[in-house]
Design a protein that fits this description.
The protein is α/β, with parallel strands linked by helices. The protein contains 6 helices and 12 strands. The strands form 4 sheets. It has a 6-stranded mixed β-sheet, sandwiched between helices. Helix 1 runs parallel beside helix 2 and helix 2 runs parallel beside helix 3. It is globular and about 50 Å long.
């Protein structure tokens, strides 16, 4: 039997994140997770929120592991994962473009929820810009977006551990970095998202919650 991919950090942060999602996704129906990683978050959140169709996505290399987690959980609200990347060429956005959910009338509709954890700081800034450009094309008019991870405020680290983590990120890949909240919020505002909540999480992380419309 193939061993499931495993991330200890997913196990540590899944319940605090779930508490946020339960509140802000309570009236949502179609969620797109961007950067599903191992797939651990997806099965935990989808099992706890059965009213929500949870669409995983990530780069092609991660899809086999996500499929293993989805197959083991065998949940009715987790369709097969999609290949998805934030790309800057030929135009900023998502590639391949994800198929949009369809309503009862068969018409394509946007996702009314989107979630991403620990992704923005491992991308280059052009990819972060592409991430939000891609969101603009897939979100419903009343969508809610939740992004989890570390952020700087007014150009300053919120803890010594985040300063150390940022140094580790940049040593591994100079394009990666803990992002400034203000710069990220400006990208969100440019696609019609208004900050609804900024929630302190364990280990000096945050959950940023935006709503559209």
């Amino acid at each position: 039997m193939t061993e499931l991919p495993y991330s200890p950090s997913c196990e540590r942060n899944r319940d605090p994140i779930l508490a946020v999602l339960r509140e802000h996704f309570a009236d949502r129906r179609e969620a797109l997770e961007i950067g599903s990683g191992t797939g651990q978050h997806a099965v935990h959140f989808a099992a706890a929120m059965p009213w929500l169709r949870w669409q995983c996505s990530d780069g092609a290399a991660y899809l086999p592991g996500i499929r293993l987690w989805l197959a083991e959980a065998a949940l009715a609200n987790t369709p097969p994962p999609l290949e998805l990347q934030a790309v800057v060429e030929p135009a900023p956005g998502f590639a391949p473009p994800p198929p949009l959910p369809r309503g009862d009338d068969g018409a394509a509709r946007g996702f009314d929820a989107a979630f991403s954890a620990n992704t923005l700081h491992i991308m280059g800034w052009p990819q972060v810009e592409a991430f939000f450009a891609g969101l603009a094309t897939v979100l419903a008019d009343d969508a809610c977006v939740v992004v989890y991870g570390p952020f700087n405020y007014a150009g300053a680290y919120t803890s010594d551990s985040n300063r150390d983590f940022d140094g580790w990120l940049k040593a591994r890949d100079p394009a990666s970095a803990i992002r400034d909240f203000e710069a990220v919020d400006a990208l969100a505002a440019a696609i019609g998202l208004c900050l609804h909540a900024d929630i302190a999480m364990p280990a000096n992380n945050r959950c940023l919650v935006w709503r559209r419309g």
